[in-house]
Write a structure and sequence with these properties.
This protein has five helices and four strands. Helix 1 packs across helix 4. The chain is globular. With 162 residues, it is α/β, with parallel strands linked by helices. The chain is 38% helix and 14% strand. The protein has a four-stranded parallel beta sheet.
């Protein structure tokens, strides 16, 4: 099992979506987690609405600090992906296990404006982009890639438009 942490500033939308997707797509090989540098303390309602519609159990999701994953007893992380530009530019804690990192920036659906349809579309678009990147990631031949090749692949996935 590989432990994968998705980071965003607020841990209320993108990182929660990524955690959900990782635990569905990669459930036999990956354990997905999410956190934020400045967590909102609550999951965005648009995130919960979309995940509910897609058949996810949302009862265990919570907005939490990335400090939980740098504390003693935290899961040893294999991969850490930032999914927002703000978190990518912040100084992260020291992660146990020296995980491989990459930036997979996605526009913030929580910042979407307009009517309910436009906001829901923003959440679906963020979900689709993250889902595609996580599918590509989960399909990588980890055992046959050296560390540098794997890092290059992670960066290429982050550049993928979704």
């Amino acid at each position: 099992m590989y432990n994968v942490l998705f980071l965003c500033t607020g841990n209320s939308a993108r990182s929660i979506l990524a955690e959900a997707i990782m635990n569905r797509i990669g459930r036999d090989k990956f354990a997905g987690f999410s956190a934020g540098s400045d967590p909102k303390g609550a999951i965005n309602p648009g995130t919960l609405t979309l995940l509910d519609k897609l058949g996810y159990d949302t009862s265990a999701f919570r907005s939490k600090s990335w400090n939980e994953f740098a504390a003693p007893g935290a899961p040893i992380l294999d991969f850490v992906f930032t999914v927002c530009d703000n978190a990518a530019n912040e100084v992260c804690p020291v992660w146990p296990g020296q995980p491989m990192t990459a930036h997979w920036g996605i526009p913030d659906p929580a910042a979407a404006t307009g009517d309910d349809i436009a906001v829901a579309r923003a959440f679906r678009n963020a979900y689709a982009a993250l889902e595609r990147r996580i599918e590509l990631f989960a399909a990588l031949p980890f055992k046959s890639l050296d560390r540098m090749s794997l890092k290059n692949r992670l960066d290429q996935i982050g550049a993928h438009a979704g």
